[in-house]
Amino acid sequence: MNLFKLLTGAFVRIGVAGAAALLLSACVSETETPSFYKSMARVDASVDQQTAAQMISQYRANSGLGPVRVDPSLSAIAASQAAAMARAGDVRASLPKEQQLETRMASIGEPGTHAVENVSGGYRTLAEAFSGWRESPKHDKVMLDDKATRLGIATAYAPNAKHKVFWSLVMAGPKP
Q: For residues 91 and 164, what is the distance between their CA atoms, to the nearest angstrom?
C-alpha cells in the first residue's frame, strides 16, 4: 500500500510539473517578436522608424556622435526611393535624376540641406539591414555622418524581384 501511495504521489507531481511546463511554454510562444526582427518581406510591412532611430543613435553614441530623430519629410522621400527600387526590382533605380537624393531633398523644400543615403536590397529585417550597413564601409559612413541630426527610413517589397525587400535610409543635417 505504501508503494502505491508513493507511485501515485510521484505521478501527480510529474503531472503537475508537466502541466506547469505546458502552461509556461504557451506563455513563451505568445511573446511578440521585437520590431527589428520582423520580416519586411510582406506587402503590408512597415519598418519601425523609432526603433531604427534608437538603434542608429546608440551606434552613433558609441562613436561619439549625437543622436538622430525621425523626420516625416525624410521618411517620405525614403519611401519614394524604396518604392522606385521595388518597382524596378533593382537598387540602381536611384540613378535617374528624379530619384537622386538632391532632387528628392529639393522636393521637400530643402535643396541646400546636407543629406546622405543608403540604398540596398535583400535584407529581410531591420536588424539585418543595420548589421549589413555597419559592415560596409560606404554604408557605415552614412550612419556615422557627423552632420546628421534627422533620418527617414523605409522599405518596399517586390515579391518577384531578386532581392524582394528594398531599403532607403536618408540622413540629413538640421533644417535650414
A: 11
pTM for this model (two decimals) = 0.80
pLDDT digits (tens, 9 = 90+) for 87-146: 999 988 777 888 899 999 999 999 999 999 999 999 999 999 999 999 999 999 999 999
CA distances from 119 to 1, 22, 57, 72 (A): 75, 45, 19, 18
Q: 67: alpha, beta or left, given left = phi > 0 and alpha = psi -120 to 50?
A: beta
The Cα 83–Cα 75 span in angstroms is 12
Report DSSP state, residue 147: T
116 backbone dihedrals φ, ψ, rounded to 5°:
-135, 160
32: its cell numbers: 511578440
